[in-house]
Amino acid sequence: MEEFENKPEDVVASVIGMSDDRFLNSDAVRKLLPTLVEELTEGIAIGQRSGPSTPLFYVNKAFERLTGYPRDEVIGKDCRYLQGNERDQEEIARIRAAIEAAEPVDATLRNYRKDGSPFWNSLSLRPVRVEDELFYVGILRDVSEIRQAQSTLDRLANLDGTTGCLNRQSFLAAAENRFCSIQI
């Protein structure tokens, strides 16, 4: 394997055109992955399936920034603590079912930072088998601003700005839905 001067362009140039196996098994990739994962802007959390829980054994810096929890406080804990008292969210049932079936799942749910402030978390959870052990890699992204913008747009599209009541179009749609759902 050729030596690199640790310049990103040298690494990229050397791996372009490699077969997937050569790329994944290259020394360059092995050296880059820990730094890459640690410096991502998305939070990364890795847990190991252990009975009914999945305790965390790794989180990156972005996870710490996103949640406010330092690594030493989360390692060994199941990440359910992030949900606070809102463990009855619909998405949580989907996540549990996917974990039980060892299937990937994407969900958006409300979590809480260490300081108690809520945030909307887009979570991509992927099972990974390593020999006989099952791990889960979670990618977390704060989507609070997107959720707030969607809520604002929904409010502007459906409510009268002066009265706060349904606007004409929304009122007619609601009345039609109600009328169509009445069983005669």
Describe the structure.
- The structure is a single chain.
- This protein has three domains: 1-39, no CATH class; 41-142, Beta-Lactamase, CATH 3.30.450.20; 147-181, no CATH class.
- It is 42% helix and 22% strand.
- The chain is built from eight helices and five strands; from the N terminus they run αααββαααβββαα.
- The chain has helices at residues 8-15, 20-24, 27-39, 61-67, 71-74, 90-101, 144-158, 168-181; strands spanning 43-48, 56-59, 105-112, 118-130, 133-142.
- Strand 3 and strand 4 (118-130) form a beta hairpin.
- The relative contact order is 0.10.
N-to-C span: 77 Å
Estimate the global geometry from the Cα principal axes: elongated
Poorly predicted residue ranges: 1-6, 11-16
Q: Biggest sheet: strands, sense, closure?
A: 5 strands, antiparallel
The CATH H-level superfamily of the largest domain is: PAS domain
In summary, what is this structure?
By secondary structure, the chain is α+β, with helices and mostly antiparallel strands. It has helices at residues 8-15, 20-24, 27-39, 61-67, 71-74, 90-101, 144-158, 168-181, and strands spanning 43-48, 56-59, 105-112, 118-130, 133-142.
Topology:
Layout: H1 8-15, H2 20-24, H3 27-39, E1 43-48, E2 56-59, H4 61-67, H5 71-74, H6 90-101, E3 105-112, E4 118-130, E5 133-142, H7 144-158, H8 168-181
Antiparallel strand pairs: 1-2, 1-5, 3-4, 4-5
Features of the shown structure:
184 residues; alpha+beta; Beta-Lactamase; 8 helices
